[in-house]
Amino acid sequence: MTPRAVGVASFRLDERLAADTLPVARLPLCETRLMDDARFAWMILVPRRAGLVELFDLRATERVQLFEELERAADALCAVAPCDKLNIGALGNSVRQLHVHVIARTVGDVAWPGPVWGHGTRQPYPPAAAQARCTALQARLHAARER
Amino acid sequence: MTPRAVGVASFRLDERLAADTLPVARLPLCETRLMDDARFAWMILVPRRAGLVELFDLRATERVQLFEELERAADALCAVAPCDKLNIGALGNSVRQLHVHVIARTVGDVAWPGPVWGHGTRQPYPPAAAQARCTALQARLHAARER
Q1: Model's pTM, two decimal places?
Q2: Domain for residue A100, yes or no?
């Protein structure tokens, strides 16, 4: 088994990330998840390789792939929610497993112009709204895949 | 003149970015600047192409180059300052000109584990300290270039 195969085989989504998010779609490199916070149109992308912490832990081909998947996620978010400015970030101060945030910000949203991270308290979606948003995002991500 | 040549020719660093930062080095794609805030080891990279707002405005080759330059900046920061976790972010809520933040965070820094953006008030370096940090970063960035 190659080191790469080991990495993929042993990948497991961090429990805190799992608890705060809802599954949207599996892209070639990343799990895409909706942040369960109705205040913002906010996804995270988590590369499915064990042991990654920093963006620079990704290999060259994975970096290109991540960029492409971030763009797909951003396009999907901006198709289902208003967006004046994208915020893209890899922080990992609280959860070290590499994950990248993609947020569609709007002028005047509750954290504007500050960052969303650490702003107030997460407000989970009503269940039907969460499902509707995930379904809409899935449709957009799949449409992008088939372009 | 090609559109690309026009973009490079008319690039001008946003005045607010210029006011908050100090010049470090010119890399092939980006201007690298030190955030003039002694609380954090914090650089910004600004691609020298006019009119860029989102990361996804970059062409494929520029995306690869940006990733490489971000890694060089991160390596340089972590060589001259302690670093427990990198924070990488492209926000642009206040200044729309595309710029990417690279911050070497330490457990227990004044904003930890929250983001640096919007945290308290920027504390400019004493002039000699700013110059020393810029010089140290330049040396590291140039060393990386010659590898």
Answers
A1: 0.94
A2: yes
